[in-house]
From TrEMBL:
TM region positions: 291-312
Keyword presence, Transmembrane: yes
Binding site for ATP: 39
Segments forming domain Protein kinase: 10-268
This protein's record includes keyword Transmembrane helix: yes
Protein name: non-specific serine/threonine protein kinase
Gene3D superfamilies (UniProt xref): Phosphorylase Kinase, domain 1 (3.30.200.20), Transferase(Phosphotransferase) domain 1 (1.10.510.10)
Segments of this protein annotated with the region Disordered: 315-348
GO terms, molecular function: protein serine/threonine kinase activity
Organism expressing this protein natively: Lentzea cavernae
E.C. number(s) listed in UniProt: 2.7.11.1
CDD domains registered for this protein in UniProt: STKc_PknB_like
Length: 490
């Protein structure tokens, strides 16, 4: 078989990867006698000329952008070629796996190892930012890690220079939704701060083993970015502090690159605890979760109704559920009403009614809860029964976790239990607003309830063997208690 030659120079040796828009080849530069990666733009048949032009311009931008940057963690671009109505980009060949593949094949990464990788990515980003370039698509699949630990940040194809026009002709946002910062989702321009948010999401993905905001649909993914800060169970305290600093909602208070470098360096050098450096303008304060309505394409994400709960007003702690008068049947709204039922002691095995607050975790109404994200479970919520195992949402199931929030995520994790009544009030507003997002798409009566952690569950957050949760949960099911046949989220 005759070897294919591009531009009478690059001999194609093997295919390294293929996507919807092209192929990456291992090639040999026969002029300089070196191995290169040759990226071939090959859009599918029938693509509009305007869209093809945008894709070609992105490849040209990748070449121009990388050519302006001189950093060991940035992939070097050697050449760009046009031949037979196709565009090729010759670039440095990196014999390495990307971070997403490493996590998929080998599991969550060690915090110290990840700190070393993050330091190198941070260096590449600092170089780009100093040159007036924002990467806009930092994510695990764009970070290559060689066996010797050297890192390469790839794919500057959608990078945006301050003096360069955008490549979107319809005003859309370009990038990967699960790694976009809330400020970008609000329509702000991409910035160094939004790149650092994406690096924080990437670090969380690597050390926890799963992408913290990735959900089953774009709408639910965007909702998670806005409302569901990740729970960090595997990250060391020091690395968790860096990640939380990057994932501060307010970009003006977000951890800066120099601050992060100081903290990551300390972790690599063996520090088990790191302190957040002070800003020159004063001590850095945490930013509370801002739940807002974001309109992007088909997604309308609600949540403003409980914004008042961002001001934390703790009350006396209690391990019991929200206490009220016993349920005698009087003054109790039906499951079809828009009111929440008052809490009362139910017999073991009794189904938990709709629009009721129950406790979960150690000593709770639901003594064990193992679902996360938008997972489903086989059985319905009943008093005293644990929910230990998830089942596929595309098959028959009883309940689905449709939303979750960590009300005090920006506070220290050893903060005192705020009390079940405070959590209940928060959760009633939160779950009601989140249900409004999916309600228009539901054609049958659906019940939903809110779960709040018990005090014991809350205080076990740092339990190494069985970490507790400091989240509130919203769960739904059919009111006639027949099985659900598919996911109702997104």
């Amino acid at each position: 078989m005759q070897q294919r030659l591009v531009a009478n120079r690059y001999a194609l040796l093997a295919e390294l990867g293929r996507g919807a828009m092209g192929v990456v080849w291992r090639a040999q530069d026969q002029v300089l006698g070196r191995a290169v990666a040759l990226k071939e733009l090959h859009p599918p048949q029938g693509i509009a000329a305007e869209e093809r032009n945008v894709l070609e311009e992105r490849m040209l931008r990748e070449a121009r952008t990388a050519g302006r940057l001189n950093h060991p963690a940035v992939v070097t671009v050697y050449d760009i070629v046009r031949e037979n109505d196709r565009t090729y980009l010759a670039m440095e060949l990196v014999d390495a796996l990307d971070l997403a593949t490493i996590v998929q094949r080998h599991g969550p990464r060690d915090s110290t190892w990840m700190a070393g990788v993050a330091l190198q990515v941070l260096g590449a980003l600092e170089t780009a930012h100093q040159a007036g370039i924002v990467h806009r698509d930092v994510k695990p699949s764009n970070i290559m890690v060689r066996p010797d630990g050297a890192v390469k940040l790839t794919d500057f194809g959608i990078a945006q220079a301050m003096d360069d026009p955008r490549l979107t002709h319809n005003g859309g946002i370009v990038g990967s939704p699960a790694y976009m910062s809330p400020d970008r989702l609000h329509g702000w321009e991409a910035s160094p701060a939004s790149d650092l948010w994406a690096l924080g999401v990437t670090m969380a993905h690597a050390v926890e083993g799963v992408s913290p905001f990735e959900r089953t649909s774009t709408a639910s993914t965007l909702h998670a970015v806005m409302n569901e800060p990740p729970v960090l169970r595997r990250a060391s305290p020091g690395l968790a502090e860096v990640i939380r600093g990057f994932l501060t909602v307010d970009p003006t208070r977000r951890l800066t690159a120099p601050q992060a470098r100081q903290m990551l360096t300390a972790i690599v050098q063996g520090a088990t605890q790191v302190s957040l450096p002070q800003n020159t303008g004063g001590k850095k304060k945490g930013t509370a979760v801002k739940v807002a309505a974001v309109v992007i394409g088909i997604a309308v994400l609600a949540g403003v109704a409980f914004a008042g709960y961002q001001v934390f007003k703790p009350e006396e702690t209690s391990n019991a559920g929200p206490t009220t008068s016993q349920n005698t049947g009087a003054n109790q709204p039906s499951e079809n009403s828009g009111e929440w039922t008052e809490a009362s002691q139910l017999p073991v095995g009794a189904p938990l009614p709709s629009r009721r607050i129950a406790t979960f975790g150690r000593g709770g109404d639901v003594p064990e809860w193992n679902l996360s994200g938008t997972q489903c479970a086989k059985d319905f919520l009943t008093q005293g029964s644990p929910v230990r195992q998830d089942v596929p949402c595309n098959g028959p199931h009883g309940i689905q976790l449709f939303s979750a929030a960590t009300p005090l995520w920006d506070k220290p994790k050893d903060i005192a239990y705020p009390g079940t009544q405070w959590l209940a009030d928060f959760t009633k507003n939160y779950c009601t607003e989140q249900f409004k997002v999916i309600e228009p798409k539901i054609k049958e009566p659906i019940g939903f309830t809110g779960l709040v952690p018990t005090q014991k569950e809350w205080e076990a957050y740092n339990d190494a063997s069985a970490p507790g949760r400091q989240e509130v949960l919203c769960v739904l099911w059919k009111q006639d208690r027949s099985p659900l046949a598919g996911s109702l989220v997104g």
